[in-house]
Amino acid sequence: MTATAPSATPDIHRGLNGVVVDTTEISTVIQETNSLTYRGYPVQDLAARCSFEEVAHLLWYGELPDAAQLGEFRARERALRPLDRTTADLLARLPETCHPMDVLRTAVSFFGAEDPAEDDDTPAANRTKSLALLAKLPTVVAADLRRRRGLAPIQPDTSLGYAENFFHMCFGRIAEPEVVRCFEISLILYAEHSFNASTFTARVVTSTLSDLYSAVTAAIGALKGPLHGGANEAVMHMLNEIGDPSRAEAWLDEALTSQRKIMGFGHRVYKHGDSRVPIMQEATDRLVARAADPEVTRLATLHAALRHAMITRKGIHPNLDYPAGLAYHLMGLDIPAFTPIFVMSRIVGWTAHITEQLAHNALIRPLGAYTGPGQRSVPNLG
Ligand code: ACO
């Protein structure tokens, strides 16, 4: 039988590049000013003046909290931080050869399996689940970091803020205020970024009326990739590979010639520089200045040299992962924990979008233009 020719190819938007799929009230990049706003507030102003908890409240409830609302929000988050024994034991049994993002993905999936209200998708139930995830994810990340160092977990401290408590659970001490502030700025900048790949993944899962844990588990999987959140780890691997600042230009030439993607550079939305980078770079520079250490100076010089070479050579600017990767290293955090830290922050954006998706849901189901063989008969295989 003669094969039927495939029909004409329609207009295709590979990678959904430039496609607007829905409305959102949560955040936007204003192209004219190259600025990112959360619920209307410029993110650099939020990073300069707010705590991460205040920004989480803003993203979830639409407004910054007053003192009483913040007090209640903090008290509820702090009470939810501990892991139950079953979860802690389960996560401790996962092979250390797996990436910490696998641990986090497993943890969220397990939280869902344990929750009798898993399939309750009312706004109130999802708010409770979102807050519990926000509270527990740092406990998982810190325990896993310590396990890989051969150390016992440290229980959360309810007297400490979100960022301070993370350092306490990782290292048994609170980092200096400058370090904690830099970390908190990174959390604020990472918290939300409209319809990025992982958030869109969460919205796709939610659009089928699946549960919040399934959506977040899938989003963690999407964030893990080096073209998305995994880039903050890849930045440090790349800097370690280059080694000496004097090698930056030659390394870049060779990498570009062999069609390598330079990690921490480029962005689907920002073509003239990521609006979050200047404030993160300033905070990272403050860590470099306070360290006054030749090894830190070498890394910072290399970081600046590669940035300069990439902008000059390709006109491609760094994204948030470029300064954040270096900052986390300077804070003494292990490279495999960098993307999990991104999750600790982006959980806010994901869950805000899950709520918004459910509020006016439409199943997300695009089309593909078929380019395979035309219809044909199955041959006789006997
Ligand atoms: N290194 C080398 N070339 C690059 C880079 C890069 N980092 N980014 C873009 N380009 C080049 C592309 O090769 C392409 O060149 P061509 O037109 O000659 O083919 C051109 O710039 C356009 O790039 P696209 O890949 O089409 O841009 P896209 O919007 O699809 O990709 C992406 C954006 C995936 C982020 C890309 O810039 C990249 O791979 N960057 C490195 C990974 C990274 O840092 N990801 C983190 C993103 S931000 C975040 O998740 C917080």
Automatic annotation (TrEMBL):
<dbReference type="InterPro" id="IPR002020">
    <property type="entry name" value="Citrate_synthase"/>
</dbReference>
<keyword id="KW-0816">Tricarboxylic acid cycle</keyword>
<keyword id="KW-0808">Transferase</keyword>
<comment type="pathway">
    <text>Carbohydrate metabolism; tricarboxylic acid cycle.</text>
</comment>
<dbReference type="InterPro" id="IPR024176">
    <property type="entry name" value="Citrate_synthase_bac-typ"/>
</dbReference>
<comment type="similarity">
    <text>Belongs to the citrate synthase family.</text>
</comment>
<dbReference type="Pfam" id="PF00285">
    <property type="entry name" value="Citrate_synt"/>
</dbReference>
<dbReference type="InterPro" id="IPR019810">
    <property type="entry name" value="Citrate_synthase_AS"/>
</dbReference>
<dbReference type="InterPro" id="IPR036969">
    <property type="entry name" value="Citrate_synthase_sf"/>
</dbReference>
<dbReference type="InterPro" id="IPR016142">
    <property type="entry name" value="Citrate_synth-like_lrg_a-sub"/>
</dbReference>
<dbReference type="InterPro" id="IPR016143">
    <property type="entry name" value="Citrate_synth-like_sm_a-sub"/>
</dbReference>
<protein>
    <recommendedName>
        <fullName>Citrate synthase</fullName>
    </recommendedName>
</protein>
<dbReference type="InterPro" id="IPR011278">
    <property type="entry name" value="2-MeCitrate/Citrate_synth_II"/>
</dbReference>
